[in-house]
């Protein structure tokens, strides 16, 4: 009777166990390789963190901007800050004139370059009247003084209240060359003579056309 | 084995008997509590009705009202009218219910109906981007409020971070 209660002697590692272990290690290595390839080919987060493969350009002031998908094209003037710290914009008398914020990087250089344009002015549509209609994937072309054209691709279009303007996302540092197009949007408040929101287009440098 | 069975049976009967005695004693004490919640003869919870009777008999309501009649107070100097006017002035203009003035004994007795407290207005929710709203661009929720405080921005690539949003448009062309 007592013979039946005895536990059988433990077996040593068999041949099948060894093969199973090797297959498992192989699967793990394969998965790791797939993950590495996926990370390398992905575009990264919004703003394209270095996934485009385009090197940033040296500084050169922009001369014109065009957004073919909405039929917008304008030369660029330089604007800075007003006395109250807000952005200076082109005159409302010339609503088709866009401007480049001269305290931001030049388009194609490392960082977020900022270009402004009116949505309307003096009873006429502005250069960025249809900016809110742009979509991810649209192209933005910026010509520079050095003759090169920086080609940006829209990654995101956002409409945000001015009271909650995302300064960090617009002006914060970026890992590569990016572009921001900004205009007004949302509801116009007649009492304040101002729009309550801003339309912001985020784009990444995806190509450079030589002079 | 047989003796064990008989012992168990005896114990069981004893247990049933003890339970019966316990139940009987409980039922015997139940009538001590009256249906109106008063205690039995042995005291305990006082009867509320008795206490109320004592109060009403000691200081009858009729006597109290006859000592200082309402008519005299209003007829003397219109004190109530003055207070009512003062309170009426304090009611917010936004209220929809106005005080009604039925004719009382003095001919000018006012019944006050307080207007509901005016709801604070922060903006046109959903259109003016106050509160929580869905941003289709980033596919996420955003929050905005009149009390919003812009966050501090650490930027080195932009030489000088502008304040707030951008004014680009005069609304002249829609």
Description:
Chain A is an alpha+beta fold and 211 residues long. Helices cover 15% and strands 36% of the residues of chain A. In chain A, strands 1-2-3-4-9-10-8-7 form an eight-stranded mixed β-barrel. A two-stranded antiparallel ribbon of chain A has the order 5-6. Chain A is elongated, with a radius of gyration of 27 Å. The N and C termini of chain A lie far apart (96 Å). The relative contact order of chain A is 0.17. By secondary structure, chain B is mainly alpha-helical. Chain B has a two-stranded antiparallel ribbon with strand order 1-2. In chain B, a hairpin with a 4-residue loop joins β1 and β2. The longest helix of chain B is centred in the N-terminal third of the chain and has 28 residues, at 2-29. Chain B is elongated. The model of chain B is unreliable at 29-77, 94-102 and 120-127 (pLDDT under 50). The interface between A and B is large, with 59 and 37 residues.
What layout of secondary structure does this protein have?
The complex is a heterodimer of chains A (211) and B (174).
Chain A: H1 15-41, E1 62-67, E2 72-79, E3 98-101, E4 111-116, E5 120-121, E6 124-125, E7 139-144, E8 149-161, H2 167-171, E9 177-189, E10 194-209
Parallel strand pairs in A: 2-3, 4-9
Antiparallel strand pairs in A: 1-2, 1-7, 3-4, 5-6, 7-8, 8-10, 9-10
Chain B: H1 2-29, H2 48-58, H3 61-67, H4 70-77, H5 79-90, E1 131-135, E2 140-144
Antiparallel strand pairs in B: 1-2
């Amino acid at each position: 009777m007592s013979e039946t209660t005895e536990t059988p002697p433990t077996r040593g590692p068999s041949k099948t166990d060894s093969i199973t272990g090797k297959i498992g290690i192989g699967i793990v290595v394969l998965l790791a390789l797939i993950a590495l390839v996926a990370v390398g080919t992905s575009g990264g987060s919004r703003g394209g963190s270095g996934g485009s493969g385009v090197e940033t350009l040296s500084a050169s002031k922009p001369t014109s901007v065009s957004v073919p998908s909405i039929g917008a094209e304008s030369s660029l003037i330089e604007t800075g800050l007003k006395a109250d710290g807000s952005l200076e914009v082109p005159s409302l008398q010339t609503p088709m004139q866009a401007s480049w914020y001269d305290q931001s990087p030049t388009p194609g250089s490392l960082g977020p370059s900022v270009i402004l344009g009116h949505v309307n002015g003096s009873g006429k549509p502005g250069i960025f009247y249809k900016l809110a209609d742009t979509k991810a994937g649209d192209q933005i072309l910026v010509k520079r003084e050095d003759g090169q054209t920086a080609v940006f691709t829209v990654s995101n279009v956002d409409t945000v209240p001015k009271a909650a303007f995302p300064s960090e996302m617009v002006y914060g540092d970026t890992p590569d060359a990016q572009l921001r197009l900004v205009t007004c949007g949302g509801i116009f408040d007649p009492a304040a003579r101002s729009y309550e929101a801003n339309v912001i287009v985020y784009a990444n440098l995806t190509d450079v056309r030589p002079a | 084995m047989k003796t064990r069975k008989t012992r168990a049976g005896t114990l069981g009967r004893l247990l049933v008997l003890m339970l019966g005695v316990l139940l009987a004693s409980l039922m015997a004490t139940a009538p001590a509590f009256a249906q109106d919640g008063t205690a039995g003869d042995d005291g305990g919870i006082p009867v509320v009705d008795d206490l109320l009777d004592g109060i009403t008999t000691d200081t009858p309501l009729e006597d109290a009202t006859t000592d200082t009649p309402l008519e005299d107070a209003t007829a003397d100097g219109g004190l109530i009218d003055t207070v009512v006017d003062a309170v009426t002035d304090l009611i917010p203009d936004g209220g929809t219910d106005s005080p009604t003035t039925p004719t009382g004994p003095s001919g000018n007795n006012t019944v006050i109906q307080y207007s509901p407290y005016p709801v604070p207005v922060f903006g046109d929710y959903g259109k003016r981007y106050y509160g929580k709203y869905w941003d289709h661009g980033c596919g996420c929720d955003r929050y905005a409020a009149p009390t919003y405080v812009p966050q501090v921005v650490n930027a080195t690539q932009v030489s000088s971070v502008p304040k707030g949003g951008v004014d680009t448009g005069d609304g002249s062309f829609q």
